[in-house]
Amino acid sequence: MIHTLHTFDLKDKRLLMRVDFNVPIDNGRVTDDFRLRAALPTIQHCLQQGAAVVLMSHLGRPKGKVVDNLSLISVGETLADLLEMPIKFSDDCISEDARDTSLGISPGEIHLLENLRFHDEETLNDPQFSMLLSKHGDVFINDAFGTAHRAHASNVGVVDQFRQKGIGFLMEKELKYLKESFDHPLRPVTIILGGAKIDTKLSMIKRFLSKADTIIIGGGMAFTFLKAKGLEVGSSLIDDKMLSTATQIMNEVKNQRVQLVFPSDFVCAKDLESKPDGVYLRRDIPEDLMGLDIGPKSIEKFQKIIS
Q1: Residue 177 in domain
Q2: What is the pTM (predicted TM-score) of this model?
Q3: Is residue 70 part of a domain?
Q4: Burial of 105 by CB count in 10 Å (0-12 exposed, 13-18 middle, 19+ buried)?
């Protein structure tokens, strides 16, 4: 049974809450606060119920190193503005100072920990790291739906360290929406999948085969499928280890009612830092270029399917 916030008496409790504050930052300023605003109902409810709240999140991919422009300090400043209250911040998520700050905050106060991924142990789901994180609270709440598919210390490893644990309002809303969509879908069902990696979405893709009428494959993973179909995709992002899996999925589709749809053209450039070189059909991507976004023909095709 999944426990929600309404399950707990939060008064005088210290909540360790996993949130998704992986937001774009430019020159130390948050440029899109959508994810911060999405977390506000959960945070505000906990504060109103008399809890102290310790927040933890990742930001970007620092690969276990301290990267100044991936610090959560500017996120904390933006969150403080949104909540109109001060927020304590620690420059490490597992230091003794950080733990002491968490233990010292009063009901109605917030403590934000520094970027979890400044430690490799986060993505490795390290047991010792998980245990140190758990010292920040006596109730664990996961409200980071966007990272729920990853087996990391902050959303998987810490769970066994807590007797009281549950999900926040954002996670609850997303799970409810997904359940309704799967149990009582309104036909036709179109699912759009993106991102770079197939392996983290494999079980989800296979489950969708029997649920959807159309699956649009975009993002970086589209190139793995296109290469598996025998197309040359230039220097575009490819997961060579998953080519056989992509082929297997496309073969399974032949026995299902679902249709897999791929982009037909791409905006291409020499690399991520270069200006776009032009728009190319998927079969014509030059060897020295990589696809970075879908082109106008793909946009038009996807719009027709969705509408």
Answers
A1: no
A2: 0.74
A3: yes
A4: middle
